[in-house]
Amino acid sequence: MPSQTVHDQVEITTPDGEASLKKEFEDLNRIGPMKDSKLRGLDGKNKKMNRSKKSVPYDYTLVSIFMQQDEDENPYMNASWVASYDESSPMIASQGPTSSNIDLFWRSVLDNNVNTIVMLTKLKEGKEEQCAQYWPANVGEVMKWEDLSVTRVGDQADGFITERKLRVDRGPQSKTVTQFHYTVWKSTSCPEDGREIIDLVNKMQKNIRSAGNGVTLVHCSDGIGRTGVFCATVNLIDRLKCENRVDVFRTVKDLRDGRPNMVENLDQYKFCYQAIVEYLRSFDLYSNF
Protein backbone atom coordinates (compact mmCIF):
# COMPACT_ATOMS: atom_id res chain seq x y z
CA MET A 1 0.00 0.00 0.00
CA PRO A 2 1.50 3.41 -0.94
CA SER A 3 2.17 5.48 2.16
CA GLN A 4 -0.18 8.30 1.03
CA THR A 5 -3.17 6.00 1.44
CA VAL A 6 -2.37 4.74 4.92
CA HIS A 7 -4.11 7.68 6.57
CA ASP A 8 -7.30 6.96 4.65
CA GLN A 9 -7.15 3.28 5.59
CA VAL A 10 -7.02 4.04 9.30
CA GLU A 11 -9.43 6.90 9.64
CA ILE A 12 -12.31 5.23 7.80
CA THR A 13 -15.33 5.27 10.09
CA THR A 14 -17.93 3.87 7.70
CA PRO A 15 -19.04 0.23 8.00
CA ASP A 16 -17.37 -0.49 4.67
CA GLY A 17 -14.02 0.64 6.07
CA GLU A 18 -14.40 -1.41 9.24
CA ALA A 19 -15.52 -4.41 7.20
CA SER A 20 -12.48 -4.06 4.94
CA LEU A 21 -10.04 -4.23 7.85
CA LYS A 22 -11.97 -7.08 9.44
CA LYS A 23 -11.88 -9.11 6.20
CA GLU A 24 -8.13 -8.46 5.89
CA PHE A 25 -7.57 -9.78 9.41
CA GLU A 26 -9.81 -12.80 8.82
CA ASP A 27 -7.90 -13.60 5.63
CA LEU A 28 -4.68 -13.41 7.65
CA ASN A 29 -6.06 -15.96 10.14
CA ARG A 30 -6.77 -18.43 7.34
CA ILE A 31 -3.13 -18.60 6.24
CA GLY A 32 -0.93 -20.89 8.30
CA PRO A 33 2.87 -21.07 8.35
CA MET A 34 4.83 -23.42 6.09
CA LYS A 35 6.38 -25.10 9.16
CA ASP A 36 4.32 -25.54 12.32
CA SER A 37 6.07 -28.24 14.38
CA LYS A 38 6.09 -27.42 18.14
CA LEU A 39 7.61 -30.60 19.55
CA ARG A 40 10.05 -28.88 21.93
CA GLY A 41 7.47 -26.52 23.40
CA LEU A 42 4.87 -29.27 23.87
CA ASP A 43 7.30 -31.74 25.44
CA GLY A 44 6.14 -32.72 28.92
CA LYS A 45 8.70 -30.87 31.03
CA ASN A 46 8.70 -27.83 28.75
CA LYS A 47 4.93 -27.55 28.35
CA LYS A 48 4.47 -26.19 31.88
CA MET A 49 6.94 -23.39 31.11
CA ASN A 50 4.59 -21.80 28.55
CA ARG A 51 2.40 -19.00 29.86
CA SER A 52 -0.20 -19.57 27.14
CA LYS A 53 -1.19 -22.42 24.82
CA LYS A 54 -1.44 -19.80 22.06
CA SER A 55 2.24 -18.87 22.24
CA VAL A 56 4.08 -22.22 22.02
CA PRO A 57 7.08 -21.54 19.71
CA TYR A 58 7.70 -23.30 16.42
CA ASP A 59 10.71 -25.63 16.58
CA TYR A 60 12.49 -24.08 13.60
CA THR A 61 12.55 -20.54 15.06
CA LEU A 62 13.04 -21.52 18.70
CA VAL A 63 15.78 -19.49 20.39
CA SER A 64 18.69 -21.69 21.48
CA ILE A 65 20.44 -21.71 24.84
CA PHE A 66 23.83 -23.41 25.06
CA MET A 67 24.09 -26.58 27.14
CA GLN A 68 26.15 -26.55 30.32
CA GLN A 69 28.22 -29.48 31.58
CA ASP A 70 25.53 -30.72 33.98
CA GLU A 71 22.76 -30.64 31.32
CA ASP A 72 21.89 -33.41 28.88
CA GLU A 73 20.06 -31.20 26.37
CA ASN A 74 19.66 -27.54 25.46
CA PRO A 75 17.38 -25.77 27.97
CA TYR A 76 13.99 -24.59 26.74
CA MET A 77 12.89 -20.95 26.72
CA ASN A 78 9.62 -19.72 25.19
CA ALA A 79 11.22 -17.33 22.72
CA SER A 80 11.29 -17.19 18.91
CA TRP A 81 13.34 -15.54 16.19
CA VAL A 82 10.95 -13.36 14.18
CA ALA A 83 11.21 -11.45 10.92
CA SER A 84 12.94 -8.07 10.95
CA TYR A 85 13.00 -5.75 7.94
CA ASP A 86 16.52 -4.64 8.84
CA GLU A 87 18.54 -7.85 8.83
CA SER A 88 21.38 -6.14 10.70
CA SER A 89 19.02 -5.71 13.68
CA PRO A 90 17.44 -9.14 14.31
CA MET A 91 14.57 -9.55 16.78
CA ILE A 92 13.51 -12.16 19.30
CA ALA A 93 9.90 -12.31 20.54
CA SER A 94 9.67 -13.84 24.00
CA GLN A 95 7.20 -14.47 26.77
CA GLY A 96 7.97 -12.76 30.06
CA PRO A 97 10.16 -15.00 32.23
CA THR A 98 8.64 -16.83 35.17
CA SER A 99 10.24 -16.89 38.62
CA SER A 100 11.60 -20.38 37.90
CA ASN A 101 13.47 -19.54 34.68
CA ILE A 102 14.94 -16.05 35.13
CA ASP A 103 18.42 -17.54 34.87
CA LEU A 104 17.50 -19.17 31.53
CA PHE A 105 16.20 -15.82 30.31
CA TRP A 106 19.57 -14.22 31.01
CA ARG A 107 21.43 -17.15 29.49
CA SER A 108 19.39 -16.65 26.32
CA VAL A 109 20.38 -12.97 26.35
CA LEU A 110 24.09 -13.81 26.57
CA ASP A 111 24.02 -16.77 24.17
CA ASN A 112 22.21 -14.82 21.44
CA ASN A 113 24.01 -11.45 21.57
CA VAL A 114 21.02 -9.51 22.94
CA ASN A 115 21.93 -5.96 23.92
CA THR A 116 18.48 -4.34 23.89
CA ILE A 117 15.34 -5.52 25.71
CA VAL A 118 11.88 -3.99 25.18
CA MET A 119 9.39 -4.87 27.93
CA LEU A 120 5.74 -4.06 27.18
CA THR A 121 3.93 -5.15 30.35
CA LYS A 122 3.72 -4.42 34.04
CA LEU A 123 4.84 -7.18 36.37
CA LYS A 124 1.21 -7.67 37.46
CA GLU A 125 -2.27 -6.73 36.26
CA GLY A 126 -4.49 -6.87 39.31
CA LYS A 127 -3.44 -10.05 41.10
CA GLU A 128 -2.30 -11.85 37.94
CA GLU A 129 1.42 -12.08 37.23
CA GLN A 130 2.37 -10.90 33.76
CA CYS A 131 6.13 -11.29 34.18
CA ALA A 132 8.57 -12.12 36.97
CA GLN A 133 10.94 -9.30 37.91
CA TYR A 134 14.15 -10.43 36.27
CA TRP A 135 16.32 -7.48 37.33
CA PRO A 136 17.50 -6.34 40.80
CA ALA A 137 15.10 -4.22 42.87
CA ASN A 138 17.45 -1.25 43.27
CA VAL A 139 20.37 0.43 41.51
CA GLY A 140 23.64 -1.13 42.64
CA GLU A 141 22.05 -4.43 43.69
CA VAL A 142 22.88 -7.81 42.17
CA MET A 143 20.92 -10.99 41.34
CA LYS A 144 22.99 -14.20 41.25
CA TRP A 145 22.66 -17.79 39.96
CA GLU A 146 25.77 -20.00 40.15
CA ASP A 147 28.24 -18.33 37.72
CA LEU A 148 25.72 -15.79 36.36
CA SER A 149 24.93 -12.37 37.85
CA VAL A 150 22.90 -9.31 36.85
CA THR A 151 23.70 -5.87 38.30
CA ARG A 152 21.35 -2.91 38.05
CA VAL A 153 23.66 -0.10 36.95
CA GLY A 154 21.29 2.83 36.44
CA ASP A 155 17.78 4.04 35.58
CA GLN A 156 16.32 6.90 33.60
CA ALA A 157 12.60 7.68 33.28
CA ASP A 158 10.93 9.50 30.38
CA GLY A 159 7.14 9.61 30.66
CA PHE A 160 5.84 6.04 30.65
CA ILE A 161 9.18 4.62 29.47
CA THR A 162 11.85 3.61 31.98
CA GLU A 163 15.34 2.90 30.65
CA ARG A 164 17.45 0.56 32.77
CA LYS A 165 21.11 -0.31 32.31
CA LEU A 166 21.85 -3.87 33.43
CA ARG A 167 25.27 -5.52 33.50
CA VAL A 168 25.27 -9.26 32.93
CA ASP A 169 28.33 -11.26 34.01
CA ARG A 170 29.14 -14.94 33.49
CA GLY A 171 32.71 -15.98 34.17
CA PRO A 172 34.95 -13.78 32.02
CA GLN A 173 31.95 -12.70 29.91
CA SER A 174 30.43 -9.28 30.71
CA LYS A 175 28.04 -7.10 28.79
CA THR A 176 25.72 -4.17 29.41
CA VAL A 177 22.10 -4.60 28.29
CA THR A 178 19.65 -1.72 27.97
CA GLN A 179 16.05 -2.44 28.93
CA PHE A 180 13.23 -0.11 27.83
CA HIS A 181 10.16 -0.75 29.99
CA TYR A 182 6.83 0.65 28.75
CA THR A 183 4.46 0.45 31.70
CA VAL A 184 0.95 1.42 30.53
CA TRP A 185 0.06 -1.10 27.81
CA LYS A 186 -2.64 -3.35 29.27
CA SER A 187 -3.14 -6.89 28.01
CA THR A 188 -6.79 -6.15 27.31
CA SER A 189 -6.48 -2.99 25.18
CA CYS A 190 -4.20 -1.03 22.86
CA PRO A 191 -2.50 2.25 23.83
CA GLU A 192 -4.66 5.33 23.35
CA ASP A 193 -1.75 7.25 21.85
CA GLY A 194 0.35 5.67 19.12
CA ARG A 195 2.99 8.38 19.55
CA GLU A 196 4.26 6.72 22.72
CA ILE A 197 4.95 3.52 20.79
CA ILE A 198 6.74 5.49 18.07
CA ASP A 199 8.84 7.13 20.79
CA LEU A 200 9.66 3.69 22.17
CA VAL A 201 10.71 2.46 18.71
CA ASN A 202 12.95 5.51 18.30
CA LYS A 203 14.63 4.94 21.68
CA MET A 204 15.16 1.28 20.87
CA GLN A 205 16.68 1.99 17.45
CA LYS A 206 18.95 4.72 18.81
CA ASN A 207 20.27 2.27 21.40
CA ILE A 208 20.82 -0.43 18.76
CA ARG A 209 22.93 2.00 16.73
CA SER A 210 24.99 3.14 19.72
CA ALA A 211 25.54 -0.45 20.88
CA GLY A 212 26.77 -1.57 17.48
CA ASN A 213 23.67 -3.46 16.38
CA GLY A 214 23.20 -6.83 18.09
CA VAL A 215 19.88 -8.51 18.83
CA THR A 216 16.74 -6.96 20.33
CA LEU A 217 14.52 -9.08 22.58
CA VAL A 218 10.88 -7.91 22.81
CA HIS A 219 8.48 -9.35 25.37
CA CYS A 220 5.15 -8.77 27.06
CA SER A 221 3.53 -11.57 29.06
CA ASP A 222 2.94 -14.26 26.43
CA GLY A 223 5.06 -12.68 23.69
CA ILE A 224 2.43 -12.57 20.92
CA GLY A 225 -0.13 -9.75 21.38
CA ARG A 226 1.61 -6.58 22.51
CA THR A 227 4.94 -8.01 21.37
CA GLY A 228 3.51 -8.72 17.91
CA VAL A 229 2.16 -5.19 17.53
CA PHE A 230 5.47 -3.65 18.57
CA CYS A 231 7.55 -5.86 16.25
CA ALA A 232 5.13 -5.10 13.40
CA THR A 233 5.45 -1.36 14.05
CA VAL A 234 9.26 -1.58 13.97
CA ASN A 235 9.18 -3.43 10.63
CA LEU A 236 6.55 -1.13 9.14
CA ILE A 237 8.61 1.96 9.98
CA ASP A 238 11.80 0.41 8.58
CA ARG A 239 10.05 -0.55 5.36
CA LEU A 240 8.47 2.88 5.03
CA LYS A 241 11.89 4.53 5.37
CA CYS A 242 13.38 2.33 2.64
CA GLU A 243 10.49 1.79 0.23
CA ASN A 244 8.03 4.63 0.92
CA ARG A 245 5.27 2.07 1.35
CA VAL A 246 3.73 -0.14 4.01
CA ASP A 247 1.99 -3.51 3.95
CA VAL A 248 0.47 -4.37 7.31
CA PHE A 249 -0.95 -7.67 6.09
CA ARG A 250 2.41 -8.92 4.79
CA THR A 251 4.29 -7.62 7.83
CA VAL A 252 2.05 -9.48 10.29
CA LYS A 253 2.06 -12.61 8.11
CA ASP A 254 5.88 -12.63 8.15
CA LEU A 255 5.91 -12.31 11.95
CA ARG A 256 3.39 -15.14 12.31
CA ASP A 257 5.61 -17.38 10.19
CA GLY A 258 8.15 -17.11 13.01
CA ARG A 259 5.84 -17.22 16.03
CA PRO A 260 2.16 -18.23 16.26
CA ASN A 261 -0.60 -15.66 16.80
CA MET A 262 1.57 -12.56 16.59
CA VAL A 263 -0.88 -9.59 16.62
CA GLU A 264 -3.68 -11.57 18.23
CA ASN A 265 -6.88 -9.66 17.51
CA LEU A 266 -8.54 -7.12 15.25
CA ASP A 267 -7.99 -4.19 17.62
CA GLN A 268 -4.25 -4.89 17.66
CA TYR A 269 -4.25 -5.20 13.87
CA LYS A 270 -5.95 -1.81 13.56
CA PHE A 271 -3.43 -0.33 15.95
CA CYS A 272 -0.61 -1.34 13.59
CA TYR A 273 -2.19 1.00 11.03
CA GLN A 274 -2.70 3.73 13.63
CA ALA A 275 0.92 3.54 14.78
CA ILE A 276 2.29 4.03 11.26
CA VAL A 277 -0.03 7.00 10.77
CA GLU A 278 1.34 8.53 13.98
CA TYR A 279 4.83 8.00 12.63
CA LEU A 280 3.94 9.85 9.43
CA ARG A 281 2.36 12.68 11.40
CA SER A 282 5.20 13.05 13.88
CA PHE A 283 7.80 13.47 11.15
CA ASP A 284 5.55 15.36 8.73
CA LEU A 285 6.54 12.97 5.96
CA TYR A 286 3.50 13.47 3.78
CA SER A 287 5.15 16.41 2.03
CA ASN A 288 8.07 14.18 1.01
CA PHE A 289 6.07 11.50 -0.76
Largest sheet: 8 strands, mixed
Structural class: alpha/beta
Kindly, what is the distance between the CA atoms of the first and last residues, rounded to a whole number of angstroms? 13 Å
Determine the fraction of residues in helical runs and give it as a percent range.
25-40%
Order of helices and strands: HHHHEEHEEEEEEEHEHHH
Query: Regarding CATH, which class?
Result: Alpha Beta
Q: What is the CATH topology descriptor?
A: Protein-Tyrosine Phosphatase, Chain A
Work out the radius of gyration: 19 Å
Q: Trace the largest sheet across and list its strands.
A: 1-2-10-3-9-8-7-6
Proportion in β-strands: 15-25%
CATH architecture: Alpha-Beta Complex
Number of strands: 10
The count of helical stretches stands at 9
Shape descriptor reads: globular
List keywords for this structure.
single chain; 36% helix; two-stranded antiparallel sheet; disordered C terminus; Protein-Tyrosine Phosphatase, Chain A; 10 strands; 8-stranded mixed sheet; alpha/beta; 9 helices; 289 residues
